């Protein structure tokens, strides 16, 4: 009978390990582990009396707790964690602070895309217009949990192919766009180095 108790408790620990590492959640292996622990505990109370049964339950709980701690600190548990997504544009929690902020289009806005405001890359939306990459933009309002921006360059119209419209952006603005692209590239390189 002692061998059966030990076998049931070891099977419970093994099934608990499988549940935690291989198939996370609370499924068949977890239920089977509870059944093995319960049956082993009942047999321990019958075999060793109240004190012996309590001792077996305490030892089983201690070993199970230590096993869970070891498993949660293992490489397998680290692989199950969600990774933080760095370097991608997002929507901040407090949107109101961004109204009035100026930045530039870090990607083509058709009409949505990524805007860069200082070191922050955020998902933005225009009022239906297309804005080319590198064009200065300003957050004008919050609409439906999104940052709505407008281009600060009145003379740049971008058609749906992404090409400049009337050619009015030649000359000084072209140099400005190259400088902005260089700023974007430097910012992305510094983000990768962090």
How widely separated are the two ends? 60 Å
Biggest sheet character: 5 strands, mixed, barrel
Number of strands: 5
Strand content: 15-25%
What is the string of SSEs from the N terminus onward? Answer: HHHEEEEEH
Strand order of the largest sheet: 1-2-3-5-4
**Name of the CATH first level of the largest domain:** Mainly Beta
SS field, number of helical segments: 4
Q: Under the CATH scheme, which architecture of the largest domain would be assigned?
A: Beta Barrel
How would you characterize this protein structure?
- By secondary structure, the protein is α+β, with helices and mostly antiparallel strands.
- The chain has two domains: 2-80; 95-162 and 176-193, OB fold (Dihydrolipoamide Acetyltransferase, E2P).
- It is 48% helix and 16% strand.
- The chain contains four helices and five strands.
- Strands 1-2-3-5-4 form a five-stranded mixed β-barrel.
- The radius of gyration is 30 Å and the shape is rod-shaped.
- The two termini are 60 Å apart.
How are the SSEs placed, and which strands pair?
Elements: H1 2-21, H2 28-72, H3 75-80, E1 102-105, E2 112-117, E3 120-126, E4 136-143, E5 146-151, H4 172-193
Parallel strand pairs: 3-5
Antiparallel strand pairs: 1-2, 1-4, 2-3, 4-5
């Amino acid at each position: 009978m002692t061998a059966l108790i030990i076998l049931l408790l070891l099977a419970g620990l093994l099934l608990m390990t499988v549940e935690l590492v291989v198939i996370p959640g609370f499924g068949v292996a977890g239920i089977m582990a509870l059944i093995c622990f319960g049956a082993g505990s009942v047999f321990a109370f019958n075999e060793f009396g109240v004190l012996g049964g309590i001792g077996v339950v305490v030892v089983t709980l201690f070993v199970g707790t230590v096993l869970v701690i070891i498993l949660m600190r293992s490489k397998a548990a680290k692989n199950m964690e969600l990774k933080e997504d760095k370097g991608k544009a997002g929507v901040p929690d407090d949107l109101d602070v961004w109204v009035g902020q100026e930045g530039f289009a870090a990607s083509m806005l058709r009409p949505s895309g990524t805007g860069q405001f200082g070191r922050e890359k955020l998902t933005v939306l225009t009022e239906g217009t297309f804005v080319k990459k590198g064009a200065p933009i300003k957050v004008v309002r919050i609409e439906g949990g999104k940052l709505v921006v407008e281009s600060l360059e009145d003379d740049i119209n971008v058609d749906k192919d992404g090409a400049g419209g009337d050619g009015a952006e030649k000359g000084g603005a072209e140099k400005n766009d190259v400088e902005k692209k260089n700023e974007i590239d430097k910012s992305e390189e510094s983000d990768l180095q962090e």
